Amino acid sequence: MNTVAEKSVEILDVIVDLQSIEAENIAHANAEIPNVRNRFTRKMMEALKLEAERRCMLHGIIADSLEEAVNLSPDELNAFSTHLNKIIEAEEKALSLAKTAFEKIEVPISRFLIAYLIDGTKKENDRLKILEDELKTASIPTSITSKTFGKVNVGF
Question: What is d(CA 52, CA 156) in angstroms, rounded to the nearest whole number?
Fold first, then answer.
């Protein structure tokens, strides 16, 4: 059986591969966007590029967390939790508004895009709620002044 360190190295290798894929997507978008004349296509390509950049950032956070334990002081934990709560509340309002808009939209591409946003926002909000719960139940390591994350149940 692999040790935690060996598994971390394997996961880091996968992260590098994932970042390479996203870097290709970003490079392709950067090369193509200036040539696109259609406003809809250009905006969609820009949005997809931003999604790839966001995933790259998350890959970096994952890599960082594998290389060094995530420790939060009580103040940091409280501030982060407060920020998560504000985001979750705002996204719940956004979901409600988007669902109302979805019910009224008749243009097929607009319906598809609003459904895409609703699905993505709901999934992200569900994940943030899991993170928030993890923060509440984070185990206390050797110091009372910091918390570290345990196993996360991903549910997929």
Answer: 21
